[in-house]
Design goal:
By secondary structure, the protein is an alpha/beta fold. The chain has helices at 8-11, 17-30, 49-60, 73-87, 102-113, 128-136, 156-162, 185-198, 226-231, 256-269, 275-286, 290-317, 351-362, 386-400; strands spanning 36-37, 96-99, 119-124, 140-145, 167-173, 201-205, 232-237, 250-253, 320-321, 329-333, 364-365, 367-368, 377-381. The protein folds into two domains: 8-46 and 291-401, Aspartate Aminotransferase, domain 1, CATH 3.90.1150; 50-288, Type I PLP-dependent aspartate aminotransferase-like (Major domain) (Aspartate Aminotransferase, domain 2). Helices cover 43% and strands 14% of the residues. It is globular. The structure holds pyridoxal-5'-phosphate (PLP). Pyridoxal-5'-phosphate is lined by residues 41, 101-103, 127, 173, 177, 205, 207, 237, 239-240, 245, 250.
Protein backbone atom coordinates (compact mmCIF):
# COMPACT_ATOMS: atom_id res chain seq x y z
CA UNK A 1 0.00 0.00 0.00
CA UNK A 2 1.40 3.46 -0.82
CA UNK A 3 2.09 5.76 2.13
CA UNK A 4 -0.87 8.09 2.55
CA UNK A 5 -0.04 11.76 2.45
CA UNK A 6 -2.74 14.27 3.16
CA UNK A 7 -3.52 17.69 1.76
CA UNK A 8 -2.18 20.73 3.61
CA UNK A 9 -5.77 21.72 4.44
CA UNK A 10 -6.59 18.41 6.09
CA UNK A 11 -3.21 18.14 7.78
CA UNK A 12 -3.82 21.39 9.62
CA UNK A 13 -7.35 20.38 10.66
CA UNK A 14 -8.04 19.36 14.26
CA UNK A 15 -11.04 17.16 15.06
CA UNK A 16 -14.00 18.98 16.63
CA UNK A 17 -13.04 19.24 20.31
CA UNK A 18 -16.61 18.92 21.53
CA UNK A 19 -17.11 15.70 19.58
CA UNK A 20 -13.71 14.47 20.82
CA UNK A 21 -14.65 15.18 24.45
CA UNK A 22 -17.93 13.33 23.98
CA UNK A 23 -16.06 10.39 22.46
CA UNK A 24 -13.78 10.19 25.49
CA UNK A 25 -16.82 10.13 27.79
CA UNK A 26 -18.42 7.41 25.65
CA UNK A 27 -15.29 5.30 25.83
CA UNK A 28 -15.39 5.41 29.63
CA UNK A 29 -19.13 4.59 29.56
CA UNK A 30 -18.45 1.54 27.39
CA UNK A 31 -16.22 0.27 30.20
CA UNK A 32 -19.23 0.34 32.48
CA UNK A 33 -18.48 3.65 34.22
CA UNK A 34 -21.53 5.81 34.99
CA UNK A 35 -20.34 9.02 33.32
CA UNK A 36 -22.28 12.24 33.88
CA UNK A 37 -21.94 13.71 30.43
CA UNK A 38 -22.33 17.45 29.86
CA UNK A 39 -20.32 17.70 26.66
CA UNK A 40 -22.81 17.60 23.86
CA UNK A 41 -24.41 20.63 22.32
CA UNK A 42 -27.78 19.23 21.44
CA UNK A 43 -31.27 19.09 22.96
CA UNK A 44 -31.94 15.84 24.80
CA UNK A 45 -35.62 15.87 23.72
CA UNK A 46 -36.94 13.67 20.94
CA UNK A 47 -38.12 15.45 17.80
CA UNK A 48 -41.82 16.37 18.28
CA UNK A 49 -44.28 13.78 17.03
CA UNK A 50 -45.97 15.81 14.28
CA UNK A 51 -42.55 16.36 12.71
CA UNK A 52 -41.66 12.67 12.86
CA UNK A 53 -45.03 11.85 11.26
CA UNK A 54 -44.39 14.35 8.47
CA UNK A 55 -41.15 12.52 7.65
CA UNK A 56 -43.03 9.23 7.45
CA UNK A 57 -45.69 10.79 5.24
CA UNK A 58 -42.99 12.23 2.97
CA UNK A 59 -41.56 8.77 2.43
CA UNK A 60 -45.02 7.35 1.74
CA UNK A 61 -45.67 10.15 -0.74
CA UNK A 62 -42.50 9.22 -2.64
CA UNK A 63 -40.32 12.16 -1.60
CA UNK A 64 -37.35 9.84 -1.64
CA UNK A 65 -35.54 11.27 -4.68
CA UNK A 66 -33.07 14.05 -5.38
CA UNK A 67 -34.48 17.51 -4.83
CA UNK A 68 -33.01 20.75 -6.21
CA UNK A 69 -29.50 21.04 -4.74
CA UNK A 70 -30.39 24.14 -2.73
CA UNK A 71 -33.56 22.65 -1.24
CA UNK A 72 -37.26 22.41 -2.14
CA UNK A 73 -39.15 25.59 -2.95
CA UNK A 74 -41.81 24.85 -0.28
CA UNK A 75 -39.17 24.86 2.46
CA UNK A 76 -37.53 28.06 1.18
CA UNK A 77 -40.97 29.67 1.19
CA UNK A 78 -41.59 28.41 4.73
CA UNK A 79 -38.28 29.94 5.86
CA UNK A 80 -39.39 33.28 4.34
CA UNK A 81 -42.74 33.02 6.14
CA UNK A 82 -40.95 32.31 9.42
CA UNK A 83 -38.79 35.46 9.22
CA UNK A 84 -41.80 37.55 8.23
CA UNK A 85 -43.91 36.13 11.05
CA UNK A 86 -41.31 36.20 13.82
CA UNK A 87 -39.13 39.21 12.96
CA UNK A 88 -41.01 41.20 10.30
CA UNK A 89 -38.16 40.56 7.84
CA UNK A 90 -39.10 40.19 4.18
CA UNK A 91 -37.10 37.79 2.03
CA UNK A 92 -37.60 36.06 -1.30
CA UNK A 93 -37.00 32.30 -1.73
CA UNK A 94 -34.12 33.21 -4.09
CA UNK A 95 -32.33 34.58 -0.99
CA UNK A 96 -32.58 31.25 0.83
CA UNK A 97 -30.40 28.14 0.58
CA UNK A 98 -31.13 24.92 2.46
CA UNK A 99 -28.04 22.95 3.51
CA UNK A 100 -27.10 19.84 5.49
CA UNK A 101 -27.30 21.59 8.86
CA UNK A 102 -26.26 25.10 9.82
CA UNK A 103 -22.64 23.96 10.09
CA UNK A 104 -22.75 23.13 6.38
CA UNK A 105 -24.36 26.52 5.71
CA UNK A 106 -21.50 28.25 7.52
CA UNK A 107 -18.93 26.19 5.63
CA UNK A 108 -20.47 27.07 2.27
CA UNK A 109 -20.71 30.78 3.08
CA UNK A 110 -17.06 30.93 4.10
CA UNK A 111 -15.99 28.76 1.16
CA UNK A 112 -17.94 30.97 -1.25
CA UNK A 113 -16.54 34.24 0.08
CA UNK A 114 -13.07 33.72 1.54
CA UNK A 115 -9.63 32.80 0.35
CA UNK A 116 -5.94 33.50 0.98
CA UNK A 117 -5.35 37.14 1.90
CA UNK A 118 -8.79 37.64 3.42
CA UNK A 119 -9.30 38.24 7.11
CA UNK A 120 -12.27 36.95 9.07
CA UNK A 121 -13.02 38.47 12.47
CA UNK A 122 -14.12 35.97 15.13
CA UNK A 123 -14.87 37.10 18.70
CA UNK A 124 -13.64 34.72 21.40
CA UNK A 125 -14.85 32.55 23.03
CA UNK A 126 -15.98 31.10 19.70
CA UNK A 127 -17.80 28.01 18.46
CA UNK A 128 -15.23 25.30 17.72
CA UNK A 129 -15.84 25.03 13.98
CA UNK A 130 -15.56 28.71 13.04
CA UNK A 131 -11.78 28.91 13.05
CA UNK A 132 -11.31 25.53 11.38
CA UNK A 133 -13.72 26.39 8.56
CA UNK A 134 -12.02 29.73 7.88
CA UNK A 135 -8.56 28.14 7.87
CA UNK A 136 -9.71 25.52 5.35
CA UNK A 137 -10.11 28.32 2.79
CA UNK A 138 -6.64 29.74 3.43
CA UNK A 139 -8.11 32.94 4.88
CA UNK A 140 -6.74 34.37 8.13
CA UNK A 141 -8.61 34.20 11.43
CA UNK A 142 -8.52 37.46 13.41
CA UNK A 143 -9.53 36.70 16.98
CA UNK A 144 -10.95 39.46 19.16
CA UNK A 145 -11.10 38.57 22.84
CA UNK A 146 -14.28 39.47 24.69
CA UNK A 147 -14.26 39.44 28.47
CA UNK A 148 -16.37 37.84 31.15
CA UNK A 149 -16.83 41.33 32.65
CA UNK A 150 -18.57 42.44 29.44
CA UNK A 151 -20.70 39.28 29.48
CA UNK A 152 -18.62 38.04 26.52
CA UNK A 153 -20.05 40.75 24.29
CA UNK A 154 -18.05 42.13 21.35
CA UNK A 155 -18.13 45.92 21.56
CA UNK A 156 -18.41 48.30 18.62
CA UNK A 157 -15.00 49.76 19.55
CA UNK A 158 -13.39 46.32 19.50
CA UNK A 159 -14.92 45.58 16.11
CA UNK A 160 -13.80 48.93 14.73
CA UNK A 161 -10.22 48.30 15.87
CA UNK A 162 -10.11 44.83 14.28
CA UNK A 163 -11.21 45.92 10.82
CA UNK A 164 -8.49 46.28 8.15
CA UNK A 165 -8.70 46.71 4.36
CA UNK A 166 -8.43 42.91 4.15
CA UNK A 167 -11.41 42.18 6.39
CA UNK A 168 -13.97 40.09 4.55
CA UNK A 169 -16.41 38.98 7.18
CA UNK A 170 -17.41 39.10 10.83
CA UNK A 171 -18.63 35.84 12.37
CA UNK A 172 -21.15 36.66 15.04
CA UNK A 173 -23.02 34.10 17.14
CA UNK A 174 -26.01 35.32 19.11
CA UNK A 175 -26.95 33.78 21.51
CA UNK A 176 -23.50 32.29 21.84
CA UNK A 177 -22.15 28.81 22.05
CA UNK A 178 -20.14 28.35 24.31
CA UNK A 179 -20.92 31.33 26.59
CA UNK A 180 -24.71 31.69 26.38
CA UNK A 181 -24.17 35.44 25.90
CA UNK A 182 -27.22 37.15 24.41
CA UNK A 183 -26.62 40.57 22.85
CA UNK A 184 -29.04 43.35 23.74
CA UNK A 185 -30.65 45.16 20.81
CA UNK A 186 -28.51 48.23 21.62
CA UNK A 187 -25.28 46.21 21.56
CA UNK A 188 -26.24 44.68 18.21
CA UNK A 189 -27.21 48.03 16.77
CA UNK A 190 -23.83 49.48 17.74
CA UNK A 191 -22.10 46.65 15.86
CA UNK A 192 -24.46 47.10 12.92
CA UNK A 193 -23.47 50.79 12.67
CA UNK A 194 -19.79 49.81 12.42
CA UNK A 195 -20.65 47.19 9.79
CA UNK A 196 -22.48 49.77 7.68
CA UNK A 197 -19.68 52.34 8.08
CA UNK A 198 -17.11 49.82 6.77
CA UNK A 199 -19.39 47.96 4.36
CA UNK A 200 -18.58 44.81 6.33
CA UNK A 201 -20.41 41.55 5.69
CA UNK A 202 -21.69 39.90 8.87
CA UNK A 203 -22.42 36.21 9.13
CA UNK A 204 -24.95 36.10 11.97
CA UNK A 205 -25.30 32.58 13.34
CA UNK A 206 -28.69 32.70 15.08
CA UNK A 207 -29.17 28.97 15.63
CA UNK A 208 -30.18 29.56 19.30
CA UNK A 209 -32.69 32.33 18.47
CA UNK A 210 -35.60 30.46 20.11
CA UNK A 211 -33.70 29.64 23.31
CA UNK A 212 -33.81 32.97 25.14
CA UNK A 213 -34.26 33.27 28.91
CA UNK A 214 -36.24 35.71 31.02
CA UNK A 215 -34.49 39.06 31.09
CA UNK A 216 -32.93 38.68 27.65
CA UNK A 217 -34.37 39.58 24.29
CA UNK A 218 -33.54 38.32 20.81
CA UNK A 219 -33.18 40.57 17.79
CA UNK A 220 -32.03 39.30 14.43
CA UNK A 221 -28.96 41.15 13.17
CA UNK A 222 -30.83 41.83 9.92
CA UNK A 223 -33.54 43.78 11.73
CA UNK A 224 -31.74 47.14 12.02
CA UNK A 225 -32.85 48.56 8.69
CA UNK A 226 -32.27 47.83 5.01
CA UNK A 227 -28.60 48.93 4.98
CA UNK A 228 -27.80 46.42 7.72
CA UNK A 229 -29.97 43.69 6.19
CA UNK A 230 -28.06 44.04 2.92
CA UNK A 231 -24.81 43.23 4.73
CA UNK A 232 -26.22 40.41 6.85
CA UNK A 233 -25.94 36.74 6.04
CA UNK A 234 -28.30 34.91 8.39
CA UNK A 235 -27.69 31.32 9.42
CA UNK A 236 -30.07 29.17 11.38
CA UNK A 237 -31.77 25.80 11.23
CA UNK A 238 -34.04 23.30 12.93
CA UNK A 239 -31.42 21.50 15.07
CA UNK A 240 -31.73 23.44 18.32
CA UNK A 241 -35.26 24.93 18.31
CA UNK A 242 -37.02 21.73 17.21
CA UNK A 243 -34.64 19.11 18.66
CA UNK A 244 -33.71 17.97 15.15
CA UNK A 245 -29.90 17.71 15.23
CA UNK A 246 -29.79 14.35 13.47
CA UNK A 247 -31.96 15.45 10.56
CA UNK A 248 -29.30 17.85 9.26
CA UNK A 249 -31.27 20.84 7.99
CA UNK A 250 -29.97 24.39 8.19
CA UNK A 251 -30.33 27.49 6.05
CA UNK A 252 -28.64 30.63 4.84
CA UNK A 253 -30.46 33.86 4.02
CA UNK A 254 -28.46 36.44 2.15
CA UNK A 255 -27.84 38.33 -1.08
CA UNK A 256 -29.19 36.51 -4.18
CA UNK A 257 -25.72 36.35 -5.81
CA UNK A 258 -24.20 34.74 -2.73
CA UNK A 259 -27.01 32.19 -2.56
CA UNK A 260 -26.43 31.37 -6.25
CA UNK A 261 -22.69 30.89 -5.67
CA UNK A 262 -23.33 28.69 -2.65
CA UNK A 263 -25.90 26.67 -4.60
CA UNK A 264 -23.28 26.06 -7.29
CA UNK A 265 -20.85 24.88 -4.67
CA UNK A 266 -23.44 22.69 -3.00
CA UNK A 267 -24.52 21.16 -6.33
CA UNK A 268 -20.96 19.93 -6.89
CA UNK A 269 -20.26 19.03 -3.28
CA UNK A 270 -23.25 17.32 -1.65
CA UNK A 271 -26.29 17.85 -3.91
CA UNK A 272 -29.50 18.32 -1.94
CA UNK A 273 -29.95 17.94 1.81
CA UNK A 274 -31.94 14.78 2.69
CA UNK A 275 -35.34 15.00 0.96
CA UNK A 276 -37.20 13.43 3.89
CA UNK A 277 -35.58 15.80 6.37
CA UNK A 278 -36.60 18.76 4.25
CA UNK A 279 -40.26 17.73 4.50
CA UNK A 280 -39.86 17.19 8.23
CA UNK A 281 -38.35 20.69 8.54
CA UNK A 282 -41.28 22.06 6.54
CA UNK A 283 -43.67 20.56 9.11
CA UNK A 284 -41.54 22.00 11.92
CA UNK A 285 -41.71 25.55 10.53
CA UNK A 286 -45.34 25.50 9.40
CA UNK A 287 -46.82 23.33 12.17
CA UNK A 288 -47.75 24.16 15.77
CA UNK A 289 -44.96 25.94 17.64
CA UNK A 290 -46.01 24.87 21.17
CA UNK A 291 -43.21 22.33 21.51
CA UNK A 292 -40.59 25.02 20.90
CA UNK A 293 -41.83 26.99 23.90
CA UNK A 294 -42.31 23.85 26.02
CA UNK A 295 -38.69 22.88 25.47
CA UNK A 296 -37.51 26.44 26.10
CA UNK A 297 -39.35 26.48 29.43
CA UNK A 298 -37.62 23.25 30.45
CA UNK A 299 -34.26 24.65 29.42
CA UNK A 300 -34.95 27.76 31.49
CA UNK A 301 -35.78 25.65 34.54
CA UNK A 302 -32.46 23.82 34.14
CA UNK A 303 -30.59 27.05 33.56
CA UNK A 304 -32.00 28.49 36.78
CA UNK A 305 -31.16 25.34 38.70
CA UNK A 306 -27.58 25.34 37.41
CA UNK A 307 -27.12 29.04 38.22
CA UNK A 308 -28.53 28.59 41.74
CA UNK A 309 -26.04 25.79 42.33
CA UNK A 310 -23.12 27.67 40.78
CA UNK A 311 -23.50 31.11 42.41
CA UNK A 312 -21.95 29.95 45.72
CA UNK A 313 -18.94 28.63 43.76
CA UNK A 314 -17.69 32.20 43.39
CA UNK A 315 -17.10 32.53 47.12
CA UNK A 316 -16.24 28.93 47.80
CA UNK A 317 -13.90 28.05 44.94
CA UNK A 318 -13.14 31.34 43.20
CA UNK A 319 -14.99 30.10 40.11
CA UNK A 320 -16.26 33.01 38.00
CA UNK A 321 -18.82 33.23 35.19
CA UNK A 322 -21.31 35.41 33.37
CA UNK A 323 -24.88 34.09 33.51
CA UNK A 324 -26.22 32.82 30.18
CA UNK A 325 -29.05 34.77 28.54
CA UNK A 326 -29.66 32.12 25.89
CA UNK A 327 -28.58 28.75 24.45
CA UNK A 328 -27.96 25.90 26.93
CA UNK A 329 -24.45 26.32 28.28
CA UNK A 330 -22.83 27.37 31.52
CA UNK A 331 -19.32 28.65 30.85
CA UNK A 332 -17.13 29.16 33.88
CA UNK A 333 -13.57 30.01 34.80
CA UNK A 334 -11.76 27.44 36.94
CA UNK A 335 -8.29 29.06 36.85
CA UNK A 336 -8.49 29.84 40.59
CA UNK A 337 -8.26 26.08 41.19
CA UNK A 338 -5.07 25.57 39.21
CA UNK A 339 -2.24 24.35 41.45
CA UNK A 340 -4.63 23.50 44.29
CA UNK A 341 -5.31 19.92 45.40
CA UNK A 342 -8.48 18.55 43.80
CA UNK A 343 -10.04 15.09 44.15
CA UNK A 344 -7.45 12.50 45.19
CA UNK A 345 -4.89 15.28 45.68
CA UNK A 346 -4.48 15.79 41.92
CA UNK A 347 -3.39 19.25 40.74
CA UNK A 348 -3.93 20.74 37.30
CA UNK A 349 -2.53 23.79 35.54
CA UNK A 350 -4.98 24.33 32.69
CA UNK A 351 -8.62 23.76 31.76
CA UNK A 352 -7.90 20.77 29.51
CA UNK A 353 -6.18 18.93 32.37
CA UNK A 354 -9.00 20.02 34.68
CA UNK A 355 -11.52 18.30 32.39
CA UNK A 356 -9.37 15.17 32.03
CA UNK A 357 -8.94 14.85 35.81
CA UNK A 358 -12.63 15.56 36.46
CA UNK A 359 -13.60 12.80 34.03
CA UNK A 360 -11.09 10.31 35.40
CA UNK A 361 -11.63 10.99 39.12
CA UNK A 362 -15.29 11.98 39.42
CA UNK A 363 -16.66 10.78 36.07
CA UNK A 364 -18.04 14.10 34.92
CA UNK A 365 -17.48 15.16 31.32
CA UNK A 366 -17.16 18.86 30.42
CA UNK A 367 -15.50 20.54 27.43
CA UNK A 368 -12.31 22.53 27.91
CA UNK A 369 -12.42 26.22 27.09
CA UNK A 370 -9.12 25.76 25.23
CA UNK A 371 -11.29 24.41 22.40
CA UNK A 372 -13.18 27.73 22.25
CA UNK A 373 -10.17 30.03 22.45
CA UNK A 374 -10.86 30.66 26.14
CA UNK A 375 -8.09 29.24 28.34
CA UNK A 376 -9.08 28.71 31.96
CA UNK A 377 -12.73 28.12 31.15
CA UNK A 378 -14.88 25.00 30.86
CA UNK A 379 -18.28 24.48 29.25
CA UNK A 380 -21.16 22.58 30.80
CA UNK A 381 -24.15 21.84 28.57
CA UNK A 382 -27.41 21.78 30.55
CA UNK A 383 -29.30 20.04 27.75
CA UNK A 384 -29.82 17.12 30.08
CA UNK A 385 -32.29 16.13 32.80
CA UNK A 386 -32.45 17.86 36.19
CA UNK A 387 -31.54 14.56 37.90
CA UNK A 388 -28.33 14.26 35.94
CA UNK A 389 -27.56 17.95 36.48
CA UNK A 390 -28.06 17.55 40.22
CA UNK A 391 -25.71 14.56 40.37
CA UNK A 392 -23.19 16.19 38.04
CA UNK A 393 -22.98 19.51 39.86
CA UNK A 394 -22.56 17.61 43.12
CA UNK A 395 -19.72 15.58 41.61
CA UNK A 396 -18.03 18.74 40.32
CA UNK A 397 -18.32 20.26 43.81
CA UNK A 398 -16.75 17.12 45.30
CA UNK A 399 -13.94 17.32 42.77
CA UNK A 400 -13.23 20.98 43.54
CA UNK A 401 -13.40 20.33 47.30
CA UNK A 402 -10.76 17.61 46.95
CA UNK A 403 -13.20 14.75 47.51
C1 LIG B 1 -25.30 23.56 16.95
C2 LIG B 1 -24.68 24.76 16.33
C3 LIG B 1 -24.69 24.97 14.94
C4 LIG B 1 -25.08 24.01 13.88
O1 LIG B 1 -26.00 23.12 14.01
P1 LIG B 1 -26.42 22.17 12.83
O2 LIG B 1 -26.83 20.93 13.54
O3 LIG B 1 -25.28 21.96 11.90
O4 LIG B 1 -27.57 22.85 12.15
C5 LIG B 1 -24.20 26.16 14.44
N1 LIG B 1 -23.71 27.10 15.24
C6 LIG B 1 -23.66 26.92 16.56
C7 LIG B 1 -23.11 28.01 17.38
C8 LIG B 1 -24.13 25.75 17.16
O5 LIG B 1 -24.03 25.59 18.47
Amino acid sequence: MPALTFSPAVRSLKPSATLAAAAKAKELKSKGVNVLDFTLGEPDFNTPEHIRKAAWNAMEAGHTHYTPSGGIMELKQAVCRLYQRDYGLTYKPSQVLISNGAKHSIHNIIAALCGPGDEVIIPTPYWVSYGALVELTGATVVLVDTTEASGFILSAEQLERAITPRTKLLLLNNPSNPTGAAYTPAQLEALAKVAVKHNLLVLSDEIYEKLIYTGSQFRSFASFGPEVAALTILVSGVSKAYAMTGWRIGWTIGPVELIKAMDNLQSQETSNPCSISQYAALAALDGPQDSVEEMRVEFEERRNYVMDRMRPWRQKYGVTFAEPGGAFYAFFNVAALFGKPLAGGVTVSNATDFCTALLEKNHVALVTGDAFGAPGYVRLSFATSLDILQAGLGAIEDFMSGK
